[in-house]
Amino acid sequence: MTKEIKRIDGRKSNQLRPMMAKVGVIPNADGSAMFAFGDTVAIAAVYGPRKLHPQHMQDPSTGVLRCTYDLLSFSVEDRKKPGPSRRSQEISKVTGWALEPIIDLGAFPNTVIDVQVYILQADAGTRTAGINAASMALAHAGIPMRDLVCSVAVGKQDKDFVVDLTKEEEDFKEGEGATDFAIAKLAGSDEFSLLQLDGKIRPEEINEVLKLASESCKEIYEVQKKALKEAVSQK
Length: 235
Ligand code: CDP
Hints:
By secondary structure, this protein is of the alpha+beta class. The protein has 4 helices and 9 strands, in the order E-E-E-E-H-E-H-E-E-H-E-E-H. Strands 1-2-3-5-4 form a 5-stranded mixed beta sheet. The chain has a 4-stranded antiparallel beta sheet with strand order 7-6-8-9.
């Protein structure tokens, strides 16, 4: 049973922000999608698979998944300086880790699949919204995938776990301190492809957190599926 706690925006602990998803938002890309959790809006574009250059980077045994994540300058309150940062490099990397298990890269030797994720508006949870958008964009690009990836962050409000935190909630550091646990899960199995914890969680709490995230992932998957179906029916 879900414990009733008071969140800043009145949501229940297991309640995601309103989600919005659309596929095919960038016509020149091979695949594209947008995904929003409330005021956090991500778009993802997929290009490829195409020959990887420079040639010495090519691997005849596998393709390469190259993910790039960034915030647009005015997506955040304090304008973000354009160009890569340590944060954007880290999130690019974890986005790739979250997505790699669903793609058979061995089927695309010597190639690269570029996944570019941009955050148009940020209110926390941007890496998770980006992963949701990227997973849909890969499917839209027709890349053979064994599943979709769904992603959500679980955090702590005092002693209670809550899903899909806003920036205001993330900044609320009373009680046990800030906890932000970004989780990505394969929709059709119990496999997790990303567990990125910032903060502290007790070992005995892990199962509760993963259960919360798994329930949220079911809702996210339905939204992703609906958007992909709509795109197919419009073709
Ligand atoms: O976005 P996510 O929760 O995945 O990652 P984070 O590094 O924990 O960032 C949390 C939030 O801080 C972002 O979603 C933005 O709302 C905000 N942020 C910002 O205002 N300016 C930045 N340069 C970076 C993040």
